[in-house]
Amino acid sequence: MLEILGRPFVRDVAWFTLWQALASTVLTVLVALPGAYVFARFDFPGRRLLNAATLVPFVLPTVVVAAAFLALLGPRSPFGLRLEHTIWAILIAHVFYNYAVVLRVVGAVWAQIDPRTEEAARVLGATRWQAFREVTLPLLRPAIASAASIVFLFTFTSFGVILVLGGPQFATLEVEIYRQAAQLLDLRVAATLTLVQLVALAGLLLVYARYQERGSVRSRSASPRVVLRRPRTTVEHAFLIANLGVLAVLLGLPLAVLVERSLAVAGGYGLDYYTALFNQAGALFVPPVEAIRNSLVFAATSTAISVSLGLLAAQVIASGRGILAKAFDVLLTLPLGTSAVILGFGFLVALGTLPVDLRVSPLLIPIAHALVALPFVVRAVVPVMRSIDQQMHEAAAVLGASPSRTWRRIDLPIIARAALIGAGFSFAVSLGEFGATLFIVRPDTPTMPIAIFRLLGQPGALAFGQAMAMAALLMIVTAVAIVAIDRVRVPSRGAL
Amino acid sequence: MTLKLSGVTVQFDSTVAVDRVDLEVRDGERLSVLGPSGSGKSTLLRAICGLEPLAAGRVEWDDRDLAGVPVHRRGFGLMFQDYALFPHLDVEHNVRFGLENGDSPRAETDDRVSEVVGLVGLLGYEKRLPAQLSGGEQQRVALARALAPRPRLLMLDEPLGALDRSLRRSLLDELADTFEGLGLSIIYVTHDHEEALAIGDRVCVMRAGRIEAVMPPRDLWRTPPTEFVARFLGFTNVVDAHVAAGRVATALGTFDLHGGLQGNSETLAEGRHRLLIRPDAFQPQPDGPITGVVRSATFRGDHTLLRVAVGERGDVETMLEMQADWSPAPEAGDRLRLWIEPSGLVLLPLP
What we know:
The complex is a heterodimer of chains A (496) and B (351). With 496 residues, chain A is an all-alpha fold. Chain A has 22 helices and two strands. The relative contact order of chain A is 0.12. Chain B is α+β, with helices and mostly antiparallel strands. Chain B is built from eight helices and 20 strands. Chain B has a six-stranded mixed beta sheet, sandwiched between helices. A five-stranded antiparallel beta sheet of chain B has the order 13-12-11-14-20, with no helix packed on it. In chain B, strands 15-19-16-17-18 form a five-stranded antiparallel beta sheet, with no helix packed on it. The relative contact order of chain B is 0.12. The model of chain B has no long low-confidence stretch (mean pLDDT 89). Chains A and B meet through α18 and α19 of A and β6 of B.
C-alpha cells in the first residue's frame, strides 16, 4: 500500500483534487457573495421567484449539469466556445453548482444582521468599505466559513462533472478510484485511493462540524428582523442589475442551451432527438426510453426503502437523548459527506462476500440509492419530530383530545408531511444518482444519468442530441419533484 | 360550578413551585393571578388542568376531587402563553379541534366555529395557517380555540405577554369586554398589575409559590395588605413606623392613628410596623411639616412625578416619589414644604 501511495500519479491526483476544490470554493464565494447581499437586502420584482430558482442548479443531477456545460462550452457550443477538457469548464460548472449554497447560507445570516449596525459605523465616520470590512464581514465570517466548507466538500468529491467535462487529463480522487476499479480493474490501487479519500473527508467533516457549532451560536444572538428595501441610488441599481445579470448568465444560460441543443436538429428545430429516444442507440443495449422507465421504477423503490428506514431512524434520533441517538445521528449524515463513488466501490467489493449474491438482484440499485437518500429523509423528519413540543400535546389534551386522537391529529399529519418531503428528496436523489450507480449498474438496465453519460461518450450528432434530450427530460422531472417538495413544506411556527 | 383548591403543592425535584395553595373560584368569577416570574402562577394553572402532578393537596370541581380525571376529560380551557397553535392546521381547524371530541353534529360545530371566530374578530382568516398571522392575530386564534368547546373554566397564561405594549393596551380592553359578555369563570395569569386589576373580580397575588393576598382590585390598590404587594403594584414610599398611644411615629413626622389612615386590626395595634405613603398623598403647604429638595421632576401628563429627598438635618435622606398635580409644577432643585393627607397612608405589617 505504501508503495502505491508513493507513486507520483497518486500525488498528482491528490494535489489536483485539493487545488481544484480550493479554486472552486474561492471562486464560488467571490461570485456568490454580492448575490447574497442583493437577496438579503434588496426588494425587487421577482425576488421570491428568483430566489427559488437559484436552488434549481443545486438539486440538478451532476450528469445534467455536466451535459449542460458540455452543450454550452463543448464542441457543439452554439457560441463556438471550446472550453471542454479545460480546468475552466470544471471551475465554472462548480460555481454553477454551488452558487446557491453560498447564497442561502450567507444570505440567511446577512438578512438577519441589522442594517443599522453598518449605519452606526458610517455615522461614526467609517467609509462604506470600512463599515463592511469591520462590522458586517466579521459577523458574516462564520456563515462564509460554513458555506465555504460545504462547497469545498462538494467540489472535493466532485465526480460526474470532472468525468464528463475534464476529459482524460483531469482526475480527482473520485474519478481515479472509478478508473482504477472499473476500467483498469486494479482494485488495490482503487482501495488505497479510497482510504486516502476517506481520511481527507473525515478531516473535512470535523472542520465543518466545528464551524457549524460556532455559526449557530452567532445566529441565535442576531435579531430576527429582516429588512428589505428597494434600491435607491444609481450605484445600487447598477449593483443589483449586474448581479442579476451574473445570475442569468451563470445559472440560466447553461440550462437554456441544454434545452436549445436538444431541440436543434439539422436545418432548424424539432423533436427528432426526443423521438429518437425510442430507437436503439449504439452505446446502450436498450432503447434510451427504457432508461426512463428504469429510473422511475428504481426511484420509487428506493424512496419506499429510504422513507421507511428513515422514519425508524428519525424516531430513534428524535426521541433518544443518549449516546446511541447521537452516534446514530452522526452515522446517518456520513453518506452525505462521503462520496457516491466510494459507496459504489464498497458495494462492488463487499457484496461479493455476502451469502446471498445481491449483485445480480434488481434491488441492488434501489438499495444503494436509498442509502444515499437516507440522510435527506432523516434530516427532513427529525427537526419536525422534535418541533412537536410537549406544549402542543398539552394544548390538544386541554382541548379534550385523548392521547390517541392527539397522535392521529397532531403528530401523524405533521410527520407525514415531513416524510413526504423526505420522499420527494429521496426520489430526486435516486433519479440523479450517478457515481454509485456507475459501479453497480447492469448494462441492460441503465438509469437516465447512466444513459446520458454513455450517449455523451458516443461520437455523432444523434447520440449527442439524444443525450441532450434525455438530460432535458431528467432536468424537468427533477425540477417537478423539487417544486412538489416546496409546495408540501409546512411553514414553521413563527416564521413569516 | 366552583373550583376549589386545598393545600395544592407542586414540586420539581427539590424546589417547591406551588406551596400549599388554597383558593376558590366561584361560578362566573374572574380571578386574576398576579406575581413576578417564577412565583408559580403558570404552574398553578398547569396543576389545575392536570398537566402537573400534585405533590399534595386537592383540586376539586363542585366538591368532586379531580385527582383521577385525565387532562382531556376535565373540560377546562387553557390558553398557553405562546399560544401553542397547531402549525399544520389553519385557523378554522385550530378552532374546530376542541369541538370534534364529542359527537355533536357537523352543522352545530360549523356554527360554533364561525361564532367564536367572529367573536375574536377573525372572520375571513379561516383558511390562514398560524405562520401567516401576526402575533396579535395568533393570540386571537388561541383565544377562539380555547373558547370554542365552551369550557366550564377558562384559564389564560399571560395571554398578552408576547405582544408589544400598544397592542397589549387595545387587546386588554377587548378581552375585558369579551369576558364581560360571556359570564364564564376565568383565571387570568399575568405579571402586569394593570392587566390583573382590569380583568379580575378578585386579584390573587403570588409570591414564591404561596398566595400573598386575594382581594378585589379596588381594595388591593387602596390598601395593599403587605409591603411585597405594595411594591409589586408600583408603590415605592415605604418607611418604618411605630404605633403607640394613638400616634404613628415615623422619620417624616407623627400622624394621628385615627385621622383617616388605613390599616387592619394587626397593623393598627401598638408596635413596630411599616407605613406606605401613596405618591398622591403629598400636598404643598407654606408651613408644612415636611421639607425636601426636588432631585428630579418628570412630566407625566396629568401630573409631574417628583423624586424628592427628604431629611431633617440632611444626614438621613429618604427618597420619596410624589405625584404633583399642583401648579406651578416643581422643578429639579426646588425646595418644598409639604404635608401628607392621612387618607394616603397605609400601615403594613413588618415583612
